[in-house]
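Moderator note: this is an archived Q&A kept for reference. The question asked for a predicted structure of one protein chain; the sequence and the answer are reproduced below.
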Amino acid sequence: MKPTGNTVLITGGGTGIGLAVAKLLADKGNHVIVCGRRQEKLDEAKQATPELETHQCDVSEAEAREHLFETIRSNGHSVNVLINNAAIMRHYDLEDPESLDLDTIKRDIETNLLSVIALSTMFLPSLREQDGATIVNVSSPGGVVPVTGVPIYCATKAALHSYTMSLRYSLGDSVKVIEVYPPSVDTEMMSSVKLPTITCEDFAKRLLPRLEKGQEEIWVGEANVLKVLARLSVKRTLPFINRAVG
């Protein structure tokens, strides 16, 4: 990925790691477009970093995705870096089937997986025409070793990993496809997980140099520990991780 001169779209970019990455990319001279569900968070992001272009968009909704795509195109922007970062992590009790709401689960799947497939497909024709075309999918160590309290999130991230590998193989050299595995980061999403965290800003600073190098799979910080443990034995790592998150 080029360090500067890109037009970048970051989903889920109004808060958390998406916003931290957006700020650093903007500081490097990239045109950065962020979208998110909550207009108030986008307004706060715009106030703090005026050079960001912000759009309200719930990526779980097909019409909203299409509107975002058409708006960006009508504004004359040609996105060459797509960062699929938006995600929902909800707690579910698999021991209590009556508490599981399938409509809510479908929304999680739409946000975490189907939106990535849809947006990647939507932007692919124009990406192929751009210099330094890159798709970055933000995955999770939970897709490798699941945290059983958030089973749908972990399942969608496991599926995202498989999709990302297929996409990379299919596109070959025409578009760079990168998968990112963050550690536990101090965000709203991770507030209920009892693990040591790093700040969003620290995560972004560690990530960007590796994006620029074009590494296909990027494990950041403490996520590398889980990577090693999982390679030794997923079965043994599973209870260890689930006890750790408490």
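Archived answer notes: The chain has eight helices and seven strands.
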